Amino acid sequence: MKVWKKLYTYYAGLIFGITFLILFPIFLIIISKKSWHRFGYHLNKFWAKAFFAGIAKPVEVEVHPVINKDNNYVFCPNHFSYLDIPVMGFTPANFVFVGKSSIKKAPLFGYMFDKLHIAVDRQSKISSYETYKKSSVVARHGRSLVIFPEGGILSKKPPQMARFKDGAFRIAIEQQIPIIPVTIPFNWIVLPENGDFTLKRGKLKIVFHEPIETAGKKLEDLQSLKDRTFEVINDHLKKHVNNAGRQGNT
């Protein structure tokens, strides 16, 4: 069984690479002109659908009906697995990722990410400040942001989340745009971050919760906004614990 899992993992990696290489020339066209960058969202969404279809892992997407795709938001998902990034391709609004600067080292993919998204070195105060400024500009121009509020895959005991950092919530308050908590309940089982890096059985799901409004809020409200977002995601993760356990035993 382990052999088949390894083969399936290699196959998934191959599909990821092939679909990206096919789409890369289109990414280059989009990158070439600043006003075309927003079309990168649609290409990323197509890529996500193609990838998960290609590895026969459909993603169940649950979107709260209050979300208006024409508005901009700060999407805050939990982060336990490398699958979380491609799954966020199903986000129901045109967005820019804020991710770790180490992504830029990936051949071709890193170039695309650096041009269309925002990379941050969390160990550098200068980089963090520059990222904050870039993110604020993106928000002011009407595009959404996807920011993992844990700051990376930091939890040692998923589905227990690591503490949230302030950045996403500071931007949401200062730009007066809503926060959308996002729960990704099963990725940590299907592709755990434990050094094994083997795809396992189990379904994939992503839940976009009701927006949390920031209108009228000030920086003094940052902690309560952070706590509320954490609570929404954490409560939903707890509801999936039993299902997650059943998946893990299959």
From TrEMBL:
Record GO terms (molecular function): acyltransferase activity
The keyword Glycoprotein belongs to this UniProt entry's keyword annotation: no
Pathway: Lipid metabolism
Sections of the chain in a coiled coil: none
SUPFAM superfamilies cross-referenced by the UniProt entry: Glycerol-3-phosphate (1)-acyltransferase
Keyword terms of this UniProt record: Acyltransferase, Lipid biosynthesis, Lipid metabolism, Membrane, Transferase, Transmembrane, Transmembrane helix
Domain Phospholipid/glycerol acyltransferase positions: 73-187
InterPro entries (UniProt xref): Plipid/glycerol_acylTrfase
Residues passing through the membrane, by range: 12-31
Keyword Heme part of the UniProt annotation: no
Superkingdom as given in the UniProt entry: Bacteria
Protein name: Lysophospholipid acyltransferase family protein
Upper taxonomic lineage: Bacteria, Pseudomonadati, Bacteroidota, Cytophagia, Cytophagales
